[in-house]
Amino acid sequence: MRTDGTIVPWNEIATGVRDRWIVRQARRFRAFGAPVYLSFHDEPESDGEFGSPAEFASAFRHIVGIFREERVDSVAFVWTMMSWTFDKGSGRDPMDWYPGDGYVDIIGTNGYNWFPMKPRWDSFQEIVAPTMSFASERDKPVFVVEFGVMEDPEDPERKADWFRSIRDAGKEWSRLKGLIYFDEVKDGYPWVTDSSSSARSGYADMADSRWLSVMP
Predict the structure, then answer these.
(1) What's the pLDDT tens digit per position in 34-57?
(2) Digit-coded pLDDT (tens) for 52-80
(3) How confident is the model over 164-184, as pLDDT tens digits?
(4) Can you tell me the distance from the alpha carbon of 158 to that of 172, in angstroms, rounded to the nearest whole number?
(5) What is residue 3's DSSP assignment?
(6) Residue 89: how many CB atoms within 10 A of its CB?
(7) Which of 59, 60, 108, 121 pairs as cysteine with 14 (C-beta 3.0–4.6 A)?
(8) How far from 102 is each of 9, 55, 60, 68, 105, CA to CA, in Å?
């Protein structure tokens, strides 16, 4: 999407219409030189106005191809989908959007525990497990690009314990290589880490875990 709010359809990228701009960016990344994780169009399954899943996958491959032609060795490409897209009961097939093993360096996922806005309390492991299964089948590392949890009004320690449970994921899932917490209030949803003193303490305990601190 452009800064003025208009969109660039995926098929324009896939068919080379935007090559000049993409080449410029690739050369800037090459000049920068430092390692970069690049996610092209986070959560494409929620943005159907840009085109079809097949057009997204084709656009992703086209961008990777240009970066390779420009000898950009410092960029790892992250393919980022909603966590529930990987759930076999969601009615979606993530393969519809998948560019292919040869084009994806890291599987990215965005997942949230929506309680109390939704009736079910989901653990971090329950949210991420379908993504881990998909990535394991393809021998790919995983980044949790966005994740979040809100307070349980009936249990002031529940959010803190949810954070601490992520230490177990670090032990169980060697494929898990990165975590980015969504530390914001958005659309009225308080995802912030410091929504309470107990939540802040639980987050600190999670972040201080030796199982997570060794992630590259």
Answers:
(1) 999 999 999 999 999 999 999 999
(2) 999 999 999 999 999 999 999 999 999 99
(3) 999 988 889 999 999 999 999
(4) 21
(5) T
(6) 7
(7) 59
(8) 23, 17, 11, 12, 8
| Separation CA 73–CA 75 (nearest Å) | 6
Residues 87-100, mean pLDDT to the nearest whole number = 93
Question: CB neighbours (10 Å) of residue 203?
Answer: 23
Q: Give the separation between CA 22 and CA 16, rounded to whole angstroms.
A: 9
Give φ, ψ of 146 to 5 degrees: -140, 135
**Do residues 127 and 147 make contact, with C-beta atoms less than 8 angstroms apart?**
yes
| Residue 15 lies inside a defined structural domain of this protein | no
What's the structural domain count of the chain? 1
Answer yes or no: are the C-beta atoms of 94 and 134 closer than 8 Å.
yes
In a domain, 110, yes or no: yes
Assigned domain for 69 exists: no
166 occurs within a structural domain: yes
